[in-house]
Each structure stands twice: as C-alpha cells, then as structure tokens.
What does this fold into?
Amino acid sequence: MKLDRLLARHQHMGRSAAHRVLAQGRVSVDGTVTRDSHYEVSRFASVVLDGIELQHGTRLIYLMLHKPVGWLSATKDAQHPTVTDLIDDPDKESLHLAGRLDRSTSGLVLLTNDGRWSKRVMDAEHRVPKVYRVQTQEPIRVEDVEAFARGFHFHTEDIITLPAKLEIIGEREALLTLHEGRYHQVKRMFHRVQNRVIALHRESVGDLSLGDLAPGQWRALTTAEVAGFAATGCD
Ligand code: URA
It folds into this structure.
C-alpha cells in the first residue's frame, strides 16, 4: 500500500493532510524518515508517525527444515503431523511452504512468510535446481539418462518436463536434478521409464543443502542464503 493511503486510513485524514504530514518529516518507515507519499509500504515494514507506531511490521522468516518421512508438507492437517508441528517459533502461523514434498519423501523444505521470495524459489522460470536422491525398484538403465534430459509429456498438464539431469550412482540409485516442481514429478518420470520410486529424498534446493540437520530439525536461513535466491532469479 502507498504510504499516503496508509496514513489516511490509520489517521482518518484526507490524502492532502497525509502529504503535509509527510512533507513535515514526521513519518518514518523502518526507522528512516520518509517524505515520499508514493512509497510502497509492505506489511513487513514498521511505520511511525510522531513517535507512535501505526503499523507494526511483521517479522520476515526464512527457515529450512529436514522433513522426515511420514510428515505432511502442510501447515495444518486433522490426521497427520505437519512440518510446522516441528517448528518452535511464536510466528509460525504466518509460514507457508516454498515447495512441497510428498508424505513419503524426506529432505529439504523451505518455509517463509515472504510470498515474493517463495515465488522466486518455486517458479520454473527462475530455474532453481532441486536435487533428489532416488532409490528405485528396478535397475536404472543408461538410456534413461537421455530420456530424462529430453523430457516427458505429462498428459494431465499437457506440458513437456524441462530437461532433467539423471546421474546413476548405483544399480537402483540415482541423483536427479529438476528445475521445476510438478505434482509427484519424480515418481511420474520414473513411471515413464517403467520403473518405480521406492525412496525419495531431497538433498538440496539451489545452493542450500541440509548439512548436518537431522530429520525433524530446522534452522533459520542466513541473510546471504536468503539473498542467494534473489541472485539466481531473473526479475
Ligand atoms: N517428486 C515426487 O514425486 N515427490 C516429491 O515429494 C517430490 C518430487
């Protein structure tokens, strides 16, 4: 919302009165005096007029969590435990997931209350690589590498999957790098080469990997880690 509208709404003043108050240097946003009436104020910003806080900025939160098998990638569920049950933060109700994993999948999930950031992480156009460790029922064939790189036609969405890198590391084990996140994507891709995923674990998202976070543990991202996604983005 523009700063003059926010003042007008909170102080029941007209827009021209709001402009006067701004011109007098009586308003600060996140501690800085701001005179620009068109300044776009996010809900995360603190806005103060004459020393009185009109808007208490919401704290921005960015977390990574090691999702254990059996936990839902959701914030609430009546039947199953969800990943937010694992988080101990007074503002955890504001969080959403930047990309989900199936209940049977383990690994790295990101949670935030910053919708623009999670969009950058998830949008295929930003090409954020996600690496999965996959175990399969049948042996993985060398020719599957080419098939994953070519892409598969998904009938439901009528799309061709983006080129994916399949690296075979064992007879029935591979690392798969995707740059998008479609519903059950890894399982559907292996199904297309007549195989079945029996265990799936997400090792990394962009430059972030779990390190020594044990299943069920979480930690806040550093400022540099949060900014890393802005750098890979194209907006
Ligand atoms: N692809 C899948 O099939 N499942 C996941 O949880 C993630 C990617």
About this structure: Residues 223-232 form the longest helix (10 residues). The chain is about 25% helix and 25% strand.
